[in-house]
Amino acid sequence: MTFTAIVREPIDPAHVLTLIGADQDGASLLFLGVVRDHNDGRSVGGVRYDTYEEMAAEVLSEIVGEAARSAGTDRIAAVHRIGELEVGEVSVAIAVSSPHRAEAYDASRYIIEEIKKRLPVWKKERYSDGAEEWVEGRPPTAPNTVPAPPAGAPQADAPQADGP
């Protein structure tokens, strides 16, 4: 069974791994997106993620469902954190288990790429010099599917999650 969540508390990667796995699985994979200390040549001290929670939860569930159908496994967990995060904290965790590694890797990559394209989450970086700036995302995949960003956020771009 798949598991998805939008959370405000720190993500425990070990717990996310407990949400997947079965005796028939030969592969268990965990991907963590973490807040890094730089972006575009600027020193980053932390980030804030804002979202429309109900829509984000629905979109995350859709993304995970698509990956599950494609990979042939329903043993997938995806958790995205919102609120204030410091450098080094986990912003997204994706765990997948399947009989073979290829399916687990494919599902995990699909989920993170679709999160970055479609999940209605906006990122505001806090720089070491005290400045703050909304990070521009990618164009939406379909018109009118993403709510307006928070005041001051880039208006013409879609949401973008953090991570490699």
Could you describe the 3D structure shown?
By secondary structure, the protein is α+β, with helices and mostly antiparallel strands. It has a domain at 3-34 and 55-120: Molybdopterin biosynthesis MoaE subunit (Aldehyde Oxidoreductase, domain 3). 26% of the residues lie in helices and 33% in strands. The chain contains three helices and nine strands, in the order βαβββαβββαββ. The protein has helices spanning 13-18, 53-71, 101-118; strands spanning 3-7, 27-34, 38-39, 42-51, 76-81, 83-86, 90-98, 121-127, 132-134. Strands 3, 4, 6, 8 and 9 form a five-stranded antiparallel β-sheet that branches. The chain has a four-stranded mixed β-sheet with strand order 1-5-7-2. A hairpin with a 4-residue loop joins β8 (121-127) and β9. 37% of the residues are buried.
List the SSEs and their pairings.
Layout: E1 3-7, H1 13-18, E2 27-34, E3 38-39, E4 42-51, H2 53-71, E5 76-81, E6 83-86, E7 90-98, H3 101-118, E8 121-127, E9 132-134
Parallel strand pairs: 1-5
Antiparallel strand pairs: 2-7, 3-4, 4-6, 4-8, 5-7, 8-9
Helix pairs in contact: 2-3
